[in-house]
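Field: sequence (string)
Field: structure_tokens (string)

Example rows 1 and 2, in order.
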Amino acid sequence: MNKENYKKRKPRYNLKSEFHRRCDQLVNHSIYDPKTECWNWNGSTTGKGMWRYGALNVSFDELNIQRGIRSHRLSYMIFKGDIPKGMLVLHKCDNTLCCNPEHLFLGTQNDNMLDAQKKKRLPSHQGSKNANAKITEADVLEIRKLKKAKTSIPAIQKRFNLGRSTIWHIINRTTWNHIPEDI
């Protein structure tokens, strides 16, 4: 193809007009919250509760491509740039419906889990809340109390139907360490 024909050819799709259309859609489907400065998505959503995200379809008719995208990811791409493969768009504000690019940042799945843990957004599976727990917090306190009273480990094992190493870990606080020493 020579230079003249290349300049005359019609582009397969108009990225600029698609970009402006998406910007308008983002603005028209978001409600500004002055308290939090969040741009809350008011269009279609996916998920429920704290896992609810804004959702929309992006289509390039000329290319016959249509795919779903979450509103915060679109906002990031419009205002900040591409999202590298394997990266997530995380919220500083912890509002999954927020599209404010100032509240968005990139991170890995590990970053996301550490952020959730730091902000105490993950459900607790400690102690008796763990589905595999065989004893309760009260039992742990009793085990520690019995050991302080010089009860033998085999006697404690028999009473609670637990293995020697489990009793040892409870007494030495390598497990069930979230329970304070004296309650």
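Row 2 begins here:
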Amino acid sequence: MTESSAAGRPLEAALGRAVRGRSAVAAVRTWLATRSLRARVALLVAVAVGLAVALVSIAGYLSVRHELQARLDRTLLTRVQSAVDTPLIDPLTLARVPAAAFGSADVRIALVLSDGTAVSAAGEASSPPLGPAELAVARGASALSLRTASLDGVEYRVAAVPAGLGQALVLAQGTAETWHELATLGVVLLVVGLAGVALAGTAGLLVALGRARPGRAADGRRRAGRPHG
């Protein structure tokens, strides 16, 4: 096999796909051209309705996604700020409290000092993802920090607030539960959207076929009524 023939095969395949694509488009155009104006309008309306259902589903998904993350952020900030504001427990003692005490196994807490030292109940095993953002809060360069970070393949939402001079309390919570809720909702919205598109398309097709039959019947009656020469 020569190099030119080997190089020509992908080009031939691409040309074949292009020809088939044009044939399909031509077939659709021919089919539409044989429909009445009312049938074409009905199909257009059905397609528009289907697209509207799909767009509403996408918008709903994005809206709920934003709200779920905002809710997680509010919860995190409220919990970490309430912990700092508790007068009976100093942040160092709080950082050494096991995560189970917060009612969730995917919660990590630590106290970050301005020199980069971090204190947590079980050391690195219970420490949240830490980085420049949390250190900036401990040093007073930032009023608070809120970000998404990964640790050992697990994604966390991490919040840090000042906890006294030269230190910050950091609280992190896994996002797996939030994304699970979002994935479930996404599947539901996808099914609803596809069902809406299918129903709209079916309705448009039925209307188009229904409009076409009376036209064919009328043509047949006109041809039957013509005198034979």
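free_text_note (row 2): The longest strand covers residues 154-162.
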